[in-house]
Amino acid sequence: MAANWKVMASDRTPAKVAAERPLPPTSYAILGVLSFLDEMSGYDVRKYADASIAWFYWSPAPSQVYAELRRLRDRGLVDERKVAQDALRNKRVYRLTESGREALRSWIGNGHEGPILKHSPMLRLWAGHNDPAALGQVLDDYESWCRDMLEHLKWMRDEAEKVDAWRYPAVVARWGVRHYEAELGNVEAVRVDLKELEERRPSRTAPSRRGNSPKG
Amino acid sequence: MAANWKVMASDRTPAKVAAERPLPPTSYAILGVLSFLDEMSGYDVRKYADASIAWFYWSPAPSQVYAELRRLRDRGLVDERKVAQDALRNKRVYRLTESGREALRSWIGNGHEGPILKHSPMLRLWAGHNDPAALGQVLDDYESWCRDMLEHLKWMRDEAEKVDAWRYPAVVARWGVRHYEAELGNVEAVRVDLKELEERRPSRTAPSRRGNSPKG
DNA sequence: TTGCCCATGTAATTTGTTACATGATTTA
DNA sequence: TAAATCATGTAACAAATTACATGGGCAA
Q: Is it the case that residue A65 has pLDDT exceeding 70?
């Protein structure tokens, strides 16, 4: 059974299937960026994304931006136009089509995924059961990372609040400021938790052979 | 120029280069999971990761777990052992080697990357400048997502606090509880910001043709 | 006794990153 | 005048996800 399903379903060519497949969130991030300006090159999209959404969503590699733009073009969500530049090499600029604007609007209204987190500092802490000595340093690093981010976000918020078209980005920047202010408090609380752990079991920098009750 | 660099660098075979390349963080996540139990199958690793670190770090696909375990084995960071099961098919179980334990310890002590966030709800808000109507729903969905997560984390924290070997995971769970409690307050603040925006500019559900000052 | 889920994987595809290429412009 | 940088990209590769395969146990 199920031997030659490819033949049986041959009216659905790979190309057709690809065209029907829903776009990944990354595509919508690019559509979102394009919605702020009239026309952008791949380079512009990358720069804009880097300066606006990288801190809470995505920092694209150039190659991915170009590939995504081609796909959006093939689906009719953006228009491509070649521009000849007099000293520099030619470039392609992109603009949202009405269909692209509608796709973005529909994605905003119909999705419901939560945020995705990849929290290396907490992973170190989580797995740190045999190396208490290093964990203080992990927390110190993370705290200063948060402080840098907070400073950057305050500047970004102030910039965004100056421009009417950026009123929604400004709301997100304000969210970010509160987010990292809270996080700084949370780091302090983790420090207290850790200290309490270490008081309960006196400092053991190296893992002792007897400590972890090996079964074998 | 630069025509046949491959020949010139021929003492560095692809295999050697791959072996020297630093492991991705994902590998350390698996080492971390393995550090909690004596021996685990690929299936076990996936289940354990799903139940412990998925919410703040990584939810692996089965295929990726198996591939990673093979790589860790090839580098000598885990030992592989085949186990014959009497009704079920054979399986392979893995155990940290001393070298693997050391690699994990060194990663914990020497890294400094910050967390990575991929926050779809905020992206919707950020790009939502032409669809104010949907944004309230986005916030409602996100708030209830946070509430579900918070409830789950409280349960997880209580479970972890019962077991001595999970004292560091328990610290991370407590961090998570505070994290999402703060986030719920932050959502409320975003709601206030949005309401203020809409009061300044009376409700405009459809984007008006004149609204966005198109340049062209 | 058929259909679904558990436990074990492999194969194919897509996504994302790193390395490389090119030519002008600005800086040391 | 060499090195760095900006503004375009392309090619190769690694990571991650989705789809498929297999066989036993268990529930309808």
A: yes
